[in-house]
Amino acid sequence: MEQIKILVVDDHEVVRDGIVGNLVRQPDFAIIGQASNGLEAVQRASELSPDIILMDLRMPELDGVEAMIRIKQTNPEIKFIVFTTYSDDDYLFAAIKAGAKGYLLKDAPREELFKAIRAVSQGESLIQPVFTTKVLDKLASELSRKSTGMDALSDREIEVLDLMAKGVSNKDIADQLSITQSTVKTHVTSIFQKLNVTTRTEAVTTALKRGIIQL
């Protein structure tokens, strides 16, 4: 039987030990490593190439969302399940945008965690039922925005976004496109609003997922 290789990431050692203690009893799970913060998770993911990363969100050094984004850039085949104490919408949607295929609270039954790991390893998604309505409402809202043209980016905004994805600063974007830095900032603000994001990283990640730009 081929085992599912799992990396457990949580900044609380007692919590990690508890999670690992439950997972190792499942014959189809192989715990290949642990990490205590986001930076360590990025390093361990590169070294170990797990199938699944069980990721906490709020951690020192680097949070779970940013860690997922960085890992996805170099190891796109790795799948993520967020296992957290935070049920806030902001955490939920940021995690999903970053690539999480599962989202569970730490008070979820063990069997539900086991089910999520197996489902995500097979290419499925599993979000705890308490979050389903929030996700569907968010999806309906975004589809509505698209249908009214609110999310349509202009050609110039796509050019700016493409340069943002390459890590180009606002000043250099202005130089390359022969526009002012103030105009660049205006375009960036418009991009954030249309993509419903708040950071450059989120904007690039969302645009890549939607196929608006390519690296």
List the helices and strands and how they pair.
Blueprint: E1 4-9, H1 13-23, E2 29-35, H2 38-48, E3 52-55, H3 64-74, E4 79-84, H4 89-98, E5 100-105, H5 110-121, E6 126-127, H6 132-147, H7 155-165, H8 170-177, H9 181-195, H10 200-210
Parallel strand pairs: 1-2, 1-3, 3-4, 4-5, 5-6
Helix pairs in contact: 2-3, 3-4, 7-9, 7-10, 8-9, 9-10
Give a short overview:
By secondary structure, the chain is an alpha/beta fold.
Structure explained in plain terms:
There is one protein chain. This protein has 215 residues and is α/β, with parallel strands linked by helices. It has two domains: 4-139, 3-Layer(aba) Sandwich (Rossmann fold); 151-210, Orthogonal Bundle (Arc Repressor Mutant, subunit A). Helices cover 54% and strands 14% of the residues. It contains ten helices and six strands. It has helices spanning 13-23, 38-48, 64-74, 89-98, 110-121, 132-147, 155-165, 170-177, 181-195, 200-210, and strands at residues 4-9, 29-35, 52-55, 79-84, 100-105, 126-127. It has a six-stranded parallel β-sheet, with helices on both faces. Helix 2 runs parallel beside helix 3. The longest helix has 16 residues, at 132-147. The radius of gyration is 19 Å and the shape is elongated. The two termini are 37 Å apart. The model has no long low-confidence stretch (mean pLDDT 89).
Per CATH, the architecture of the largest domain is: 3-Layer(aba) Sandwich
CATH fold naming of the largest domain: Rossmann fold
Are there runs of 5+ residues with pLDDT below 50, and where? none
Class derived from helix and strand content: alpha/beta
Mean pLDDT: 89
- Quaternary class: single chain
The N- and C-terminal alpha carbons lie at a distance of: 37 Å
Spatial arrangement of strands, main beta sheet: 2-1-3-4-5-6
Assign the CATH superfamily of the largest domain. Response regulator
* Contiguous helical run count: 10
By DSSP, the count of extended strands is 6
Please give the radius of gyration in angstroms. Answer: 19 Å
Give the biggest beta sheet: 6 strands, parallel
The portion of residues assigned to helices is 40-55%
Using the alpha-carbon principal axes, give the shape: elongated
Order of helices and strands: EHEHEHEHEHEHHHHH
The tally of structural domains comes to 2
CATH C-level name of the largest domain:
Alpha Beta
